[in-house]
Design brief:
The structure is a homodimer.
Chain A: E1 9-17, H1 28-42, E2 46-50, H2 55-64, E3 71-75, E4 84-88, E5 92-99, H3 113-116, E6 119-127, E7 130-138, H4 151-168, E8 174-180, H5 188-197, E9 200-201, H6 202-205, E10 209-210, E11 218-219, H7 227-230, E12 236-237, E13 240-245, E14 250-259, E15 277-285, H8 295-356, H9 366-417
Parallel strand pairs in A: 1-2, 7-8, 10-14
Antiparallel strand pairs in A: 1-15, 2-4, 3-4, 5-6, 6-7, 8-13, 9-13, 11-12, 14-15
Helix pairs in contact in A: 4-5, 4-8, 5-8, 8-9
Chain lengths: ~450, ~450
């Protein structure tokens, strides 16, 4: 069927982190059944799911939603998968997956993020005559806000996410992004994403919101949430989002937005440990504003660019912290490896003395000898693998930092093109004894 | 300086695989000096280098080319790096790196591709008023054409390369791709890349070619090439390319193309084991052809789509071969791991018998006991790591296959929209007893 072109098109978008770890997540099969019932009843245009870790669960959902959502895609990546799935009423014409270059550490097996192969999945969908680029993603979790060792990884993921969206969406009429960003609204990565892409937050854009206080999506009232994990945010946090933007051809608005509120009427437990998001988006052909670049919009633009430069500088600092940390870890691995090697040589030397003294009795107890040798070999192998891993982490961090530096340079070039506005002078005089520019592209 | 807009803009593009493995590649420092001299003398607009494995060499080149090519970017990835570098006369506004999901095996250390973190790097450049998206890439090497175990990896790389170029270039006026594709002109991956993106091959597009016979870039006359590696292609092969395309706004043509021919006048050896490519590209504002979709262009379009479906089907077959292979390898790793575990239990059981018999003498010689235990543990660890690696390989191959299947479905949908042309019937009647469609999107 070919929908006739109308001036206005409505799209209902749903996003949920399903918490679908088979045998580990509580009531997993029952919750998937509930999610399937909800989706087939509600018939959203676009359904963006995260943490669908098992392909079997995806296939069950696919079977159940064959009528309501005939088109779907499951994004595969990493050891377990990316956990990302899209269900859609409209045909999916194309898909593309970008795997984040950094995603935690394989030896942090209890956190499990590394095995999940976190990524951003894209689907190109035609809604009527409009092309929508739909993105679903899930960023690295935050396990401890005070001492978040994964922050540089998450900032680089946010950086790569904005790059991916910005560079792949040039041909789209509208852009829709949904997922679990694992970032609070004002967190660095979130600001970076929104400022760079111009994406708007459904929760902030709608006058018609029905859901948890402050749009929270991980709430204390959810029975699957342990309250002490949320401290110091007693009521909950907002880390799941539906973002959107139009284009030069299409305007996009959020008419209403809702979230589930912990418990579900007539059900013993909620759909997941996260709350589900639903946004009603409206697309219209773009109505051009009055022509001519007036002074105000010019100032606003330069203000935005200057804000972006500030956010990027903050992000670079965070990435540099990650770089120092990775360098220290690699140094520790190298040193431990060298100590293991030295120990092995020492042991061999001690064992060799009586052997060189031709026939003198071996003073080294055999058991200790073999145990020590095995320990040395284990140390050598582990530190070698860690060395390789940290080198790759370093390369990714350096790569992101290089790209950010280049981006700052390009933005500053743009700022120089603007007439100097009041609040942001691009040629601030540096304090004496300081480098001329904090973001020198050749630094 | 802001170049004035003229109706025609010329761009000179250079591409070279530098073979820059420090201490291993022959005459590496001397060759880099030669390359630096050439580039600073020739002043190409865009220089795309591959196999610049050491960042130090990149930084030396950067210093040397500071006047001729003030803008540059080095793409970091993997353990050693991606080896990719761009030097440019025009400002680089933005960069983006896509790491291929498959790139050989870490245990094939003598081939080294896995450690290189093969990727495609993108740079957004403004040339006059035009936006050029420039890509540089290096695909997995082909070590044995008859029994090429890396073919599925290279096909998936070509698939991801075309996805990346297609999705990121929508906003560009022109697209320029250079690099070592490690594929012959008619190889599957090359056909996939060209057919899907519409990229044109400089060598085939120009009437004005000066270089090796058949545009070869790896030739027997190059003193760094061992002739037996090229068998059965005695004279050489063409695996390096400069590809380009315009857009709806800009036409692009290749005025001339040249390659080096093995030896360099006044120098004792060539720049690299690969030949260097130079293309002179010309950009003009697009001149629209007569309006109206005539029957012929419609037929051509449907012909192209049908050709793409055929190529995709071939690619899917190749990826499936890779899938079977990866599954077999993972099965072997699992079986070996289980055997290692069984051996360990057996050993412990034998050792436990006299211990249970309270004080009876240990019949197991200690040396053998510890050696065997160490062997079992080594087997277990290795097979565990291999299992994880093969699972990731499987996920990537399955992911690519899924995306290809979806793309075939979408293309067939498109074909159904065309009026039935003579050479390609979209509703071919299948032979009796055969499935209705070889590319059923729901298959």
């Amino acid at each position: 069927c070919f929908p006739l072109f109308s001036l206005q098109t409505d799209v209902r978008v749903f996003s949920l982190n399903c918490w679908g770890i088979r045998y580990l997540s509580k009531h997993c099969p029952q919750r998937y059944a509930m999610i399937g019932d909800l989706l087939s009843k509600e018939e959203h245009d676009i359904v963006l799911l995260q943490e669908v870790w098992s392909e079997k669960d995806f296939l069950n959902l696919k079977k159940k939603l064959a009528c309501s959502h005939p088109h779907c895609h499951y994004f595969k990546s990493g050891v377990i998968g990316s956990g990302l799935a899209i269900f859609c009423k409209h045909r999916i014409h194309d898909t593309f997956l970008y795997r984040y270059s950094l995603n935690g550490y394989p030896y942090m097996a209890h956190h499990g993020d590394w095995f999940g192969g976190k990524a951003v999945g894209m689907a190109v969908i035609k809604i009527g005559s409009m092309t929508a680029n739909v993105y679903v993603t899930h960023l690295h979790a935050e396990y401890c806000r005070e001492k978040d060792s994964y922050l540089p990884h998450r900032v680089v993921q946010a950086w790569e996410l904005q790059q991916f969206i910005r560079h792949t969406s040039a041909g789209a009429d509208v852009v829709i992004v949904g997922g679990d960003l694992n970032m609070h609204p004002q967190d660095l990565g979130n600001r970076l994403l929104r400022a760079y892409t111009g994406l708007r937050d459904s929760y902030l854009e709608t006058a018609n919101f029905d859901g948890c206080e402050d749009g929270m999506t991980l709430i204390a009232d959810n029975p699957f949430i342990s309250k002490k994990e949320l401290v110091p945010f007693e009521k909950g946090i907002r880390i799941d989002y539906i973002l959107f933007k139009g284009s030069s051809k299409t305007d996009m608005h959020c008419d209403s937005m809702s979230t589930t509120k912990g418990s579900i009427p007539d059900h013993p437990f909620p759909y997941s440990d996260h709350e589900a998001l639903t946004a009603e988006l409206r697309m219209e052909p773009h109505t051009p504003t009055e022509p001519g670049h007036d002074k105000k919009s010019m100032d606003q633009d330069s203000g935005k660019v200057a804000e972006l430069v500030d956010i990027l500088t903050e992000a670079r600092t965070e990435v540099k912290v990650g770089l120092h940390c990775a360098e220290r870890m690699r140094y520790t691995a190298t040193r431990t490896g060298i100590m293991g090697l030295a120990l092995l040589f020492l042991e061999l030397a001690i064992a060799a003395v009586p052997w060189l003294a031709l026939g003198a009795e071996q003073p080294f107890p055999r058991t200790s000898f073999y145990l020590l040798a095995a320990l040395c070999c284990a140390i050598l192998l582990t530190t070698f693998l860690l060395y390789i891993f940290y080198t790759m982490e370093l390369k990714s961090l350096q790569g992101a930092e290089d790209q950010m530096r280049l981006a700052v340079g390009s933005l500053q070039e743009k700022l120089r093109g603007f007439p100097l506005p009041q609040p942001y002078s691009t040629h601030r005089k540096p304090p004496e004894g300081q480098e001329p520019s904090a973001f020198d592209p050749e630094e």
